[in-house]
Amino acid sequence: ALEASAQSAGYHMMVSTEIATLMRAGGCDEAITPALAFQTSLVRLQVQLEDALAAVGAATDLPTILITDRGAMDAKSYMSPHTWSAVLEAIGATEESLLSRYDGVIHLVTAADGAPQSYKWGNVTDDSGHWVYRKESPEEAIVTDRRTQA
Predict the structure, then answer these.
(1) What Cα–Cα distance (Å) separates residue 9 from each residue in 6, 14, 16, 64, 96?
(2) Range 59-70 average pLDDT
(3) What are the Cα distances from residue 141, in Å, to 8, 16, 38, 45, 128?
(4) What is the pLDDT of residue 82?
(5) pLDDT band at residue 122, thresholds of 50, 70 and 90?
């Protein structure tokens, strides 16, 4: 419905995939990969994908809306403050520079908080029919979601 509305208003809409799921599908295993290496790669790839999609959108003759399933700042909720600082240093970014990449942010609260019967975790298929991996139990998802909002 959102894409159809955007198209009828003359916009081209692009939606990026969640990077953590993409990395896991490619064989990245957090259980055997140091947190700093995994998270640095995740944030770097998030930024690269956003840049690539923005470039493609800019090459069209239409104004483009780019929606990301998680943004670069979301990764902060999945690591310690020390690791987050190291990630920022490794990619040459600051929180301000990451935030300035976005014209707006819409945070969707996890289904685990308020609609737990709809929350899927583990190796699952999402509501769009795509394979995703959510490692957080419903309780962990609520805690992480609240950290994301902070």
Answers:
(1) 5, 15, 21, 11, 31
(2) 91
(3) 35, 21, 19, 23, 20
(4) 95
(5) confident
Distance set, CA 134 to CA 59, 64, 106 (Å): 34, 29, 20
Contacts of 54 (CB under 8 A, 6+ apart): 64, 66
Taking residue 126's Cβ as centre, other Cβ atoms within 10 Å add up to 13
Element (H, E) at 126: none
d(CA 82, CA 94): 14
Report pTM.
0.82
Sequence-distant (≥ 6) Cβ neighbours of residue 134 within 8 angstroms = 120, 121, 122, 124, 141
